[in-house]
Amino acid sequence: xxxxxxxxxxxxxxxxxxxxxxxxxxxxxxxxxxxxxxxxxxxxxxxxxxxxxxxxxxxxxxxxxxxxxxxxxxxxxxxxxxxxxxxxxxxxxxxxxxxxxxxxxxxxxxxxxxxxxxxxxxxxxxxxxxxxxxxxxxxxxxxxxxxxxxxxxxxxxxxxxxxxxxxxxxxxxxxxxxxxxxxxxxxxxxxxxxxxxxxxxxxxxxxxxxxxxxxxxxxxxxxxxxxxxxxxxxxxxxxxxxxxxxxxxxxxxxxxxxxxxxxxxxxxx
Length: 269
Prior knowledge:
Layout: H1 12-15, E1 18-21, E2 24-27, H2 28-33, H3 52-62, E3 77-78, E4 87-88, E5 99-100, E6 108-109, E7 143-145, E8 153-155, H4 156-170, H5 180-188, E9 238-240, E10 248-250
Antiparallel strand pairs: 1-2, 3-4, 5-6, 7-8, 9-10
C-alpha cells in the first residue's frame, strides 16, 4: 500500500502510478499534494525528485493527522486556506467534496474553502451532456457547467473521465468546443488533465482494423491445411467478400471456378 494515502487499491487516474524505491512505496500524486514536501530540480534523484528522507518525514507527520473524510490517520494533505486544518487522503478527496488542483503548486482545498464556478447559469436541460443521466438543477461540486457557452452541463466524474481519455491537446467543451477558457476552468475546479495524446491515437488502438481477413468461412472447409491456409492461386486461393471483406472462402470450398474474380458472402448477397 502507498505509505502516504495508506491505500493499496485506488483510481490510478487520480492518484497516479505507484513508485517503490529504498523501502518506500507511494503514489505519484500523493507525493505532489503532500504537505511541506518539495521536489528537487533534478528529477532523477530520489523518487521523481523527492528525497527519501523528506518523504519519510512527511509520512511521520501525516501519521499524527486524521482524515476528516474517513477518520483514519495518515492524512498527508491539508487545505491550503489560511487557518484551516482539515486534512485528508488523496483517494478521499472526491468523497469529501475537496478540490485538488493538478497543476502549478498542486494546491488542495476542503469542501468549505474550495473554489466555486463564478459563471451565473442554470441548466436548460436536466441531463449530463456526456452520460445523458440527470444533473442537479444548479451548479454544485458534482454538477459543472462550461464557463464559455453556459449550456454544457455535466457531472464532475463524467468530465474527469473525458479529460483522461482526450488528454491536454484535445480537451475542450463538448458543446461549444471552447478550449482555453474551458481548460483553465476545469483545471482550477480540480479536473486532472494528463499531458499526452488522446487515447485513440495510441499506436496500438486500431491494429485490428488494419488486419486483412485471412480465413475461410465456408460452412465446410475442404482445404487440407485448414481454414487459415491461403495460396496465391488454385483451389486454395482465398477470396474475400467483394462487399464487406469480412468473410472469405477458398475457391473449392464454394465451388468457384478460376475465372471468377469476385465473390459475395451470403450476408451481403
